[in-house]
Amino acid sequence: GKLTLRWQFQVTGPPDFKAGGGAPGTGILSVDGKQIGIGKIARTCPLAYGLSGDGLSCGRDTLTQVSADYQGRGEYDFTGTIRRVIVDVAPPGQKTPKTRDRD
């Protein structure tokens, strides 16, 4: 059925560029506005990614698997229907504009 999946990253400290790490934080996963998962992320990648190569992907990972558990198993494309993807990179503290009702 139709649902809204959201993953939000909340920064919890400064990046440590000297040690090769980005900022630590907390990842929050929600479905239809209800939080279903939360996890700490010790450090993020200190670099920006481009939209080519293995950058932002939706429905499949084009160059590398998401987890080592997938090694040697072939491709695992999402086979459902993704109606819309919104990537919001608003700065911390800035409210995200409301989106139109989903399809």
Secondary-structure topology with pairs:
Blueprint: E1 5-11, E2 25-31, E3 34-41
How does this structure look, described?
Helices cover 0% and strands 21% of the residues. The mean pLDDT is 78. It has strands at 5-11, 25-31, 34-41. With 103 residues, it is an all-beta fold. 0% of the residues are buried. It has a three-stranded antiparallel β-sheet with strand order 1-2-3, with no helix packed on it. The protein is built from no helices and three strands.
Features:
single chain, 103 residues, mainly beta
How many angstroms does the end-to-end distance come to?
A: 11 Å
Please indicate the percent range of residues in DSSP E strands (runs of 2 or more).
Answer: 15-25%
Q: Low-confidence runs (pLDDT<50, min 5 residues)?
A: none
**Would you tell me the structural class of the helices and strands?**
mainly beta
Morphology call: globular
Radius of gyration: 16 Å
Give, in order, the helices and strands: EEE
- For the secondary structure, the number of strands is 3
